[in-house]
Predict the structure.
Amino acid sequence: MTPASWRRDTPVLTRALGRTPHYVVAAGLAVIFLFPLVWNAWASVSAQPGTAQESGYGLGNYRTLLDYDAGLWRYLGNSALVSVLTVALTLGVSLLGGYAFARFEFPGKNLLFLLTLAILMVPYATLLIPLYVLLGRLHLQNSLLGLSLVLAMFQLPFATFMMRISFEAVPRELEESALVDGCGTAGALRRVMLPAVRPGLITVGLFAFLAAWNDFVAPLILISDSQKAPLPLAVANLRQQSMARRRLRRHRGRRGGPRRALPPPLPAAPTALRTGLHVGRAQGLRRPPDRPYRRGGRTDREPTTT
């Protein structure tokens, strides 16, 4: 290599060496994020005691999941329906609410917005029981529509906040130009504002979809029919049944083994002794008066008192 070509290639080598740490860090992060996925995929086809795949490698667990109760496709359909309804309700309400908070002035606007955000500070599980009672009065218990309403309600504070800041980032001049050109408020919102806040809508929709698809606590409380269960609840029920079968099989395997009575540990010995004394005393008090008892090596009747 000539000196001229070396000088010409030096910037390229310098840039490549300068990017090496970034490539190393990116590769390490990729391995960290992909390892759980690879591990789950390998564990799903490997042999596990108490599962449908007890020996070798195969798709026994997947066949069990496909044939479980109502079937995998039914549970996938339930989750998809709940997620779509949640996204539609969240986008519709948060779009109008965020536009109203960003563009209109009315008494108590900031107070109402703070109350909406205050829902985020309430623990998630504490609201499910009152909502369960409310859905019962509305005849929406054990229904996918009622579950979608509950999930959309929990997404509305964050969604309204996102849509308000998205509308506030759009210059008012664009909306005023549309109004001058003859558009009404609804027309300006549909033709001018919606394309401008499309990134905010996509963000809110993704958050709502992921939250509705992965939620487990709300379906566990609000859904009692196995035919209407979403996918996370069905997988949890299947896993619980598999663990119960595994424990039962392990218990049956130990029934034939040697049994040995172990003495209670030293801290529990006084408690066990007192319990035995109390039980014996209670049994002695409950002894029938006409039952013969042994005294002095011979059996007599209990003396009667006058």
About this structure: The beta strands are 293-295, 298-300. Residues 276 and 282 are 10 Å apart (CA to CA).
